[in-house]
Design brief:
129 residues; mainly alpha; 6 helices; 48% helix; elongated; Myotubularin-like_Pase_dom; MTMRA protein
Length: 129
């Protein structure tokens, strides 16, 4: 995948041929990418959606099992679909534009209450939270 780094961490229990085979199943060939590690053993792994819905469960289970086997405590994988709970890039950009307009174009002579409600309506603080 041209959008992944040259080197990245993968579970040792996944063979190279499995990685190559599975990579074709992900949108943009974006294999799961180990993004962050905590001293308690927790890790954040990002991955793109799987193209073929029929194969999704099998591939997803194989990769999650490999991650679990590679975890020092053999902890189960907790998955969260961030597409459903996070704003998309267009929503973030729109909120940023509204924030800039509020900070640059709006006269601050208005009441603080009105300015704060205008700030809230940009949804910028909600998105960055």
């Amino acid at each position: 995948s041209p959008s992944l780094p040259e080197y990245f961490v993968v579970p040792s229990s996944l063979a190279d041929q499995d990685l190559k085979l599975y990579s074709y199943s992900f949108i943009g060939r974006r294999m799961p990418l180990w993004s962050w590690n905590h001293p308690n053993g927790s890790a954040l792994v990002r991955m793109a959606n799987i193209k073929d819905v029929l194969q999704q469960r099998r591939i997803d289970q194989r990769i999650c099992n490999a991650i679990t086997r590679s975890h020092p405590l053999r902890s189960d994988v907790y998955k969260s679909d961030l597409d459903k709970c996070l704003p998309n890039i267009q929503e973030i950009q729109a909120a940023h534009i509204k924030l800039k307009q509020l900070c640059v174009n709006e006269p601050f002579e208005e009441t603080e209450e009105k300015w704060l409600s205008s700030l809230e309506s940009t949804r910028w603080l909600e998105h960055i939270r």
